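User: Can you predict the 3D structure for this chain?
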Amino acid sequence: MTPTIQELGYLGFEVSNLPRWERFATEVLGLGVSSGPQNTRRLRMDAAPARFILSEGPADDLAFAGWKVGSAAEVDAFARHLDSQGLKGTPGTADELDIRHAERMLHFTDPEGNRHEVYAAAPSQDAAFRSDVVASGFVTGAGGAGHVVFEADHYPDTIGFARNVLGVKLSDHIYLEPAPGVKIEVSFFHANERHHSVAVAPRAPIPGPKKRIHHFMVEAAQVADVGRARDRCLAFGLPVVMDIGQHPNDQMISFYAHSPSGFLFEFGWGGVKVDDATWKAEAYDRVSNWGHRPYGAMPGEGPAMPAAAVEVA
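Assistant: Here is the predicted structure, written as structure tokens:
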């Protein structure tokens, strides 16, 4: 039996401008920042010592995704599970464990070469972080840090990895035609009550550098904090790509904007919770019930999701 992943515990980013990311984290997202080992930065949302881990480097992209399990013994069990899947898990070094505040960790890669980590958290006596700018706080708890959406050149294989290796469960699909004759499927998976902790989308055929992820999402506890975050984002000088709207599958009210590294972030509120006893995966033909239009567009001007700026839930 596959050990159960409890949540998306953390994301690691390699960033070229660490000071700007620190300001972005505190002034726009409302996270806490502290210095970690090896010149890293830990970003906090709640009682966890690190929900995001920043290291300095040229990639400006995802470095790793951390999936929490219940104990060190479950990390060892996951190593055996990887063996059964024909994959190799590499134990984390002492320095890596220190940076992540983990008791045990192993890492492995998906068909796209993305690094995934399964870890058991080390005990922490830290008081829960409370944001100075996100008055309602962040929705984490049983749902973990939020979600991450991967772009994939090998879409079917990456879907198989999510199901068979990570062991996350299908929430639903969205089928889109972002341009005439261009049809894509986006798949959403949950590890807990959060509608999706991970989603996979085919890589959009648009110009520009390729990133490992399309976006990450953080969720506030009140909808007013979404509007306030949008205002802070614009004041900070980061472009809002898709303005406030609501998704049909997870019901999230959110906006999308560029992070300092170029990939997107989603700031949202109101995501539905999944109960596996009653949940049924469905298929949708749109990404938004309303809104999520390009920033500055008037109602009725252009599609809700133009081909040049594909966004997914």
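The CA atoms of residues 9 and 67 lie 5 Å apart. The chain has two domains: 7-121, 141-309.
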